[in-house]
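User: C-alpha cells for DinB family protein, please.
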Amino acid sequence: MNKPISEGKWTIREIVGHLYYWDKYNLEIMVPKMANGVNLPPFPDHDQHNKEAISYLRDNTVESIIDAFIETRKELIKRISEIEEDARFTIGEGKRQFSCESYKYICKTRHSSFATNTCKIK
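Assistant: Done. Predicted C-alpha cells:
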C-alpha cells in the first residue's frame, strides 16, 4: 500500500488519500452551497490541491485514511441526496448549469480519468 503501483505513479495510500481529500473538499465547500440558482466557487487548482492532500495525510496510517475516505464518501452521498432534485447551479465562471446528478457524474468521471491516466489501474 505504500509502494508506487508502478514506476512514477502514486501508492495506493496516496490514491485513496486523493479521493478522500477531494470528497472532503466537496463535502465542506461545495455541497453546503448547492441550491437552485447558486454559483458555486471554482474548483481549486488540481495539482496544488493534490499536493495539499499528500501533505495533509502524511502522518496518517493507511487504515486511518481508508476509514476517513469511507466515512466521508458515505456522508457526501447522504448530503448530496438531500439536495432538491431540481436544483441547478453553476461552478466558478462557467455558464453550464449542473444538477446534483450531473455533478456526481463529473466527480465520478474525473476520478475514472484520474485512475486511468494517472494511476494506470486496469
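User: Anything notable?

Assistant: The chain has one domain: 12-119.
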